[in-house]
Amino acid sequence: MSDPLLAPPPPIALEPAVDRTMLDRIILRPSSDVQGTSMGGEMVLLDLSTGRYYTLNRLGSVIWEHCTGHSTMSDIHAVLCDRFEVVPEQALNDLVALVNQLVQEGLLQQERR
């Protein structure tokens, strides 16, 4: 018989991850309750619904600046590759990871066109 206190926790239900095959069709926009401002090369976000603050580094700030509801994830990926000395695959991995995290936190919304 197994001890229920030692059982692994049940999987956490996460928001759907970014579909990498649809990057040219996914548009990103901030959630309506989120305000952002640039401070010293970093972006500071405030979720007005929770009162929580978030700080994005330089890469995250560039990503956030392009989440206006007009740029696709492919467009943002191209900006990252142009602006930073990074291998395109690493830029894509970083973009997808941050977008997934911001969507899960409720700071960013995905739309398909």
The first-level CATH class is given as Alpha Beta
Poorly predicted runs:
1-5, 9-15
Q: What would you call the structural class?
A: alpha+beta
Measured as a percent range, the helix fraction is 25-40%
Beta-strand percentage range: 15-25%
Question: Within the largest sheet, what's the order of strands?
Answer: 2-3-4
- Roughly how many Å apart are the termini? 52 Å
**If classified by CATH, what would the architecture be?**
Alpha-Beta Complex
Main beta sheet, described? 3 strands, antiparallel
Describe this structure in words.
Mean pLDDT is 87; it is low at 1-5 and 9-15. The longest helix has 17 residues, at 88-104. Helices cover 32% and strands 24% of the residues. The strands form two sheets. The chain has a three-stranded antiparallel β-sheet. Strands 1-5 form a two-stranded antiparallel sheet. The protein is α+β, with helices and mostly antiparallel strands and 113 residues long. The protein has three helices and five strands; from the N terminus they run E-E-E-E-H-H-H-E.
